């Protein structure tokens, strides 16, 4: 995950009647009360920035807590062990000086730390690690104690009112230059002079596939936004969470991409990150988008069944074992589906 995409994501999703394409940096000049939909890194950073500029911000999140693709998953093994996984974005890197200043601020607050390990790629044909990017120019950062820690802190800042478990069912532009938000349950969530949407699904047909209802935002109201949304790639991914009793000594790096695999794209050792428990060896695998798309073509966009996730977990782990690194059986294994690719 590259954190410089924050500004790219925010601009297309800022809605203000006077200018549908206005960005968050200038919204303070035309909006005094703003709703931010989504508490992933884009939504959380935007909410924080707006609040610091004196704007009244209400953040709406359909999930129980913040994080989005930077969420941390808590699982309990059969023998009662607590297992924590960053099953979405494994880390983020920074290539923008302004964003780097923000990351250094988070670092000073103990919210992030550099992940100083060896990384590389593995060729599934030659069965060899091809390179090591330890000296790569962009450092890898992780949240402390989990990737969602950054979003949690930002959503709790002064001036940000966060409402979790609040799904948006409808966005309507009113005649008095206000936006009306209605919950999926029909509850009136208030009127706002500006809205920031950090999730493309709010205006995507996939919203209908999942909920059976039309998308909350009618894109005919914002034709400029409709054009920009076409340029934002959206593709699925499955994550596989694994826990082993012993370290995987056959793997010399703590994170690597897969080459020449139609199923696996990325793997990392969760327990090697700073601030994580080392009581067990935990790994997270990410599938390729093509593999995930194939599964969805057969099962649909609705929430995957337990049987589907079990089958996916078995297929991903079978591919992991087949690469020739003597991977033992884990004592915990579980799959999760993401509908956004984790670049």
Question: Summarize this, please?
Answer:
It is built from 8 helices and 19 strands. The protein has helices at 5-10, 41-52, 97-108, 149-155, 205-211, 223-229, 289-299, 306-321; strands spanning 14-15, 33-37, 56-61, 73-76, 82-85, 112-114, 119-123, 128-132, 141-143, 160-164, 168-173, 179-183, 188-192, 194-197, 237-244, 255-259, 264-269, 281-287, 332-338. The longest helix is centred in the C-terminal third of the chain and has 16 residues, at 306-321.
Q: In total, how many domains does the architecture comprise? A: 2
Mean residue pLDDT: 86
The CATH class of the largest domain is Alpha Beta
Uncertain runs: 1-22
Strand content: 25-35%
Strand order of the largest sheet: 8-7-16-17-18-15-19
Radius of gyration: 21 Å
Calculate the terminal CA-CA distance, rounded to whole Å.
Answer: 5 Å
Provide the structure class.
alpha+beta
Structure summary, number of beta strands? 19
- The CATH topology of the largest domain is Polyamine Oxidase, Chain A, domain 2
Largest sheet: 7 strands, mixed
In helices, the fraction of residues equals 10-25%
Give me the strand/helix succession.
HEEHEEEHEEEEHEEEEEHHEEEEHHE
Q: What overall form do the CA principal axes indicate?
A: globular
InterPro entries: FAD/NAD-bd_sf
Protein name: FAD/NAD(P)-BINDING OXIDOREDUCTASE FAMILY PROTEIN
Pfam families: NAD_binding_8 (PF13450)
Organism: Salix purpurea (Purple osier willow)
Structure in words:
The protein has two domains: 143 residues, FAD/NAD(P)-binding domain (3-Layer(bba) Sandwich); 183 residues, Polyamine Oxidase, Chain A, domain 2 (Alpha-Beta Complex). With 343 residues, the protein is an alpha+beta fold. α2 packs parallel to α4. The chain is globular and about 65 Å long. The chain has eight helices and 19 strands. The strands form five sheets. The protein has a seven-stranded mixed sheet with strand order 8-7-16-17-18-15-19, covered by helices on one side. The N terminus is likely disordered. This is FAD/NAD(P)-BINDING OXIDOREDUCTASE FAMILY PROTEIN.
């Amino acid at each position: 995950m590259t954190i410089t995409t924050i500004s790219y994501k925010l601009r297309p999703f800022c809605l203000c009647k006077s200018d549908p394409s206005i960005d968050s940096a200038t919204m303070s000049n035309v909006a005094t009360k703003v709703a931010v939909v989504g508490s992933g890194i884009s939504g959380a950073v935007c909410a924080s920035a707006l609040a610091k500029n004196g704007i009244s911000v209400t953040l709406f999140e359909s999930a129980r807590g913040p994080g989005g693709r930077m969420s941390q998953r808590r699982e309990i093994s059969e023998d009662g062990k607590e297992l924590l996984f960053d099953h979405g974005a494994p880390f983020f890197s920074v290539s923008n000086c302004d964003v780097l200043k923000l990351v250094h601020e988070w670092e000073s607050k103990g919210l992030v730390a550099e992940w100083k390990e060896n990384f590389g790629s593995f060729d599934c044909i030659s069965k060899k690690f091809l390179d090591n990017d330890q000296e790569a120019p962009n450092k890898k950062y992780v949240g402390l104690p989990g990737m969602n820690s950054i979003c949690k802190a930002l959503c709790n800042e002064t001036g940000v009112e966060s409402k979790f478990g609040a799904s948006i069912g409808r966005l309507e532009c009113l005649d008095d230059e206000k936006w009306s938000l209605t919950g999926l349950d029909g509850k009136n969530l208030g009127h706002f002079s500006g809205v920031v949407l950090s999730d493309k699904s709010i205006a995507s047909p996939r919203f209908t596939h999942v909920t059976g209802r039309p998308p909350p935002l009618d894109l005919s109201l914002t034709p400029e936004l409709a054009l920009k949304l076409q340029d934002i790639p959206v593709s699925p991914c499955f994550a596989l969470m694994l826990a082993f009793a012993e370290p995987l000594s056959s793997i010399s790096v703590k994170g690597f991409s897969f080459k020449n695999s139609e199923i696996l794209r990325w793997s990392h050792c969760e327990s090697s990150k700073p601030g994580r428990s080392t009581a067990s060896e935990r790994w997270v695998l990410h599938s390729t988008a093509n593999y995930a798309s194939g599964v969805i073509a057969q099962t649909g966009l609705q929430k995957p069944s337990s049987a589907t996730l079990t089958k996916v977990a078995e297929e991903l782990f079978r591919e992991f074992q087949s690469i020739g690194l003597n991977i033992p059986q884990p004592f915990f294994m579980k799959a999760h589906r993401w509908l956004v690719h984790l670049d």
